Amino acid sequence: MSKTIFGGDHKHLVQVLTEARKASGLTQTELAKLVGKDQTYISIIERGQRRVDVLEFVALAKAMKADPEGLFEQVLKRLSKHISI
Q1: pLDDT at 8 > cutoff 90
Q2: Can you tell me the distance from the alpha carbon of 84 to that of 21, in angstroms, rounded to the nearest whole number?
Q3: Three-state SS for 6?
């Protein structure tokens, strides 16, 4: 397994997106196809090797038929008091 390159609280964002994908019943390949990417795009995100910007977060959430605000709320609940980036 590859080592994550982003530490700190970034892991919480990755965990929320990964859990949402699995809950949606989508594979990495299926989700990637929905956002016009290939499977490695999702894999790299889920391994913590690529940051996700706000627009990507929204696109991924919508592709999973998840509420972006609800997913982001889950991220916020997991963050440390002093966010590490």
Answers
A1: no
A2: 25
A3: coil
